Amino acid sequence: MLIGMHKMTRWLLIAAFLVTALTAAPAQNSQDPVVMILGNDSVTLSEFKNNFLKNNSLSKTSEKELRDYIDLFVNYRLKCAEAREMRLDTLPSLQRELRGYRAQAAAPYLTEKSVNEQLIDEALEHLRWDIRASHIMRKLSPEPKPKDTLAAYNEMLNIRKRILKGENFNDVAYAESDDPSARPYYREGTMVRSGNRGDLGYFSAFNMIYPFEKAAYNTQVGTVSMPVRSPYGYHLIFVQDRQPSISTWTVSHLLITYPENATAKDSAETKAAAQEAYRAIRNGMDFEAAVKKYCTDEGLTLNGGKMDPFPSGRFEGDFMAPLYKTGENEITPPFETRYGWHIVKVIKKEPFVETPGIRGEIRQRINRDTRSDLGPEKLAERLKKEYGFKEAKVTGKKAASPLEEFYSIDSTALFKGEWKKESFTGDKVMFTFANQTVRQSDFAAYIEKNQFDGMRKIGVEELINYAYPLFVRRCILDYEEANLEKKYPEFATLMQEYEDGILLYELSERKVWGRSETDSAGLAQFYEKVKGQYMYPERAHTVSYTMEDAKAFKSFCKLMDKGEDLETISKKFAKKGRIITAREQIFQKGENKELELACPWEILMREGSAVVTDESEFRYTTLTKMLPSPKPLEEVRGIIITQYQNQLEKEWVEQLHKDNDIFIDYNALLSLIR
User: Fold this and answer.
1) Which of 625, 620, 624, 626 is nearest to 570 (CA)?
2) Burial classification of residue 52, based on how many CB atoms lie within 10 Å of its CB (0-12 exposed, 13-18 middle, 19 or more buried)
3) Are the C-beta atoms of residues 345 and 287 closer than 8 Å to each other?
4) CATH code, residues 246-351
5) Strands annotated E in 182-232
6) Cα(192)–Cα(347) distance, rounded to whole angstroms?
7) pLDDT per residue over 308-332, tens digit each?
8) Distance between CA atoms of 430 and 437, rounded to whole angstroms?
9) Least confident span in 140-154, 344-358, 490-504
10) How far apart, in whole angstroms, are the C-alpha atoms of residue 19 and residue 30?
11) Side-chain-facing half-sphere of 370: CA atoms under 13 Å
């Protein structure tokens, strides 16, 4: 454990003094002189100053503190240089680690930051409200032909006109929606799921796909949206209600269910029973007692009506709507759903709470949500203009574009995930940007890597049109990522720091940490040199002999007083069937109060030995003074390893200074604080 902690400490030290070595040092001039020459490495005054100011303030730094920093800086640069001389930067494992760091560091540069902040603001506003909405969907393929898109859009406009003229939205959803949940689902003649008639109940941010969510929150209560496009097709959204968000509900529930295939008479009787139960509650009957008397749902009856806490979207809208209008510890009047008649006691409403860290939580949720694509999309669109993106022109009225030539590829292989880029022989230019030329062979390789196995109901043309803009965006963003170091000096600095830190950690593992763990001979030799620092103090060694009765105790004492050894005494006792129990202890002053009362510590240390007897416990104890002695290696291993590592580190640094010519202009460096 100590070793692991020591490594962590070293890594934190490395992080604190990461430095920049992006290119060869600038040529010396009067404004920015070279203040250090470390072997083949040189450092200018500005470079040193910039690194110092990352974690320090010149106005608050003493000369001693600055000199200490200079020493650390020099040692760090020498170590990094040695790591590169050993070609540690070519190790595959370190390269993989660096690529992982780079991917994390690059992410903020590959999205439009203003879009991300807008998305957080928008999501936070949505989270403050629960919306109840119904929808009608007209399904489309991922990237349909323009004529199919227009046809679907016009269909939705016509359906919207019917609703605005007075047709019931949910009736139209039942008849027209391509969402199968709008209608009942039957299996072998038995209804498995009753249809929702387009009603999606209550929801909040992140409960629906983003385009749908955004449109719902932008639609006024009681109105129908214009057709809204999502990855699934077009939607008409009817917003029925909007309420302050409730994260969790705790309720008790009395349900009187409709019998199967209920008649009008059954419905009337169910309603009457619910009204009777409500009157009984209003007249003073305990709600739990009413549940046991009137409820027909066995699960609710067993729990006295108490339901586990649930979120707003758990149950259908007809059940939830009356709850929003009911305060805590209030009871709803009877209300109807397709299941029967309900009376609900609202025990607790837990509203949405904006915690101090809510924006960070929303950012993480956005990263897992489809809206996270908006930032990269906006960035790619901006970069297309910045980099002069141009698609190849098609000459000739009947000539196919480079993209259209992909419409005839083998759909069978594509839908099986077996399509190969070699099967497409064309290599025309598709588009250019910056200094890049992207050809059909590049797009073919992209398709091979991102195939559409299992999507047989969609035409090849639609899939190619769907994949192409994604490919363009990928090319733009890949180019941007590859050039981050050139475009953003602070990113280049960060990546150099990552690389230096990884290299130094690996080199320290080889030179110090790993060696201290595996070099048992070296550790033992080092222990012999420093063991005098880890001494036991004066101690007492006691052996207590306990007998089974007073007679045995007296006999034992006599034999010991005569000077007989313990082995002889034990044999005599064994012949008589008597048992001696021995207990050995080693302790320092203050650790055995009972014996120190019988024989004061100072007397024992002066005399060197003593005997203490306890007739009541039939115990005979010998006390012997133990002189100070080194603690064994196993007892102080953690401390010794740490000290050994420090020694190895010191020897390593000394060797680096011997192996390199070092020049340090202290006058120039100290002028920073003078």
Assistant:
1) 620
2) buried
3) yes
4) 3.10.50.40
5) 185-187, 190-193, 199-203, 228-230
6) 32
7) 999 999 999 999 999 999 999 999 9
8) 8
9) 140-154
10) 23
11) 12
For 1-85+491-534+639-674, the fitting CATH number among 1.10.12, 2.60.40, 1.10.4030, 2.60.120 is 1.10.4030
Instruction: Please check whether residue 614 is in contact with residue 621, taking contact to mean a CB–CB distance below 8 angstroms.
Output: yes
Q: Which of 418, 425, 477 is nearest to 451 (CA)?
A: 418
The pLDDT tens digits for 240-255 are: 999 999 999 999 999 9
| CATH entry 3.10.450.60 includes domain 129-244 | no
Half-sphere exposure of 553 (CA within 13 A, CB side): 17
Structure-block tokens of residue 296? 């027909």
φ/ψ of 619, rounded to 5, equals: -120, 135
Q: Which of 249, 224, 250, 244 is nearest to 131 (CA)?
A: 244
| Contact of 546 with 618, CB cutoff 8 Å | yes
Other Cβ atoms within 10 Å of 512 Cβ, number: 22
Cα–Cα dist 663/362, whole Å: 52
For 25, 596, 599, 602, 633, the CA distances from 608, given in Å and listed in that order, are 71, 14, 12, 10, 27
Of 110-124, 262-276, 448-462, 475-489, give the lowest mean pLDDT range: 448-462
| Cα–Cα dist 466/472, whole Å | 11
- In terms of phi and psi (left: phi > 0; alpha: psi -120 to 50; beta: otherwise), the region of 618 is left
Cα(351)–Cα(356) distance, rounded to whole angstroms? 16
Identify which of 665, 649, 666 has the alpha carbon closest to the alpha carbon of residue 657: 649
The residues spanned by each domain of the chain are 1-85+491-534+639-674, 129-244, 246-351, 387-484, 538-627
Joined tokens for residue 654:
């000394």
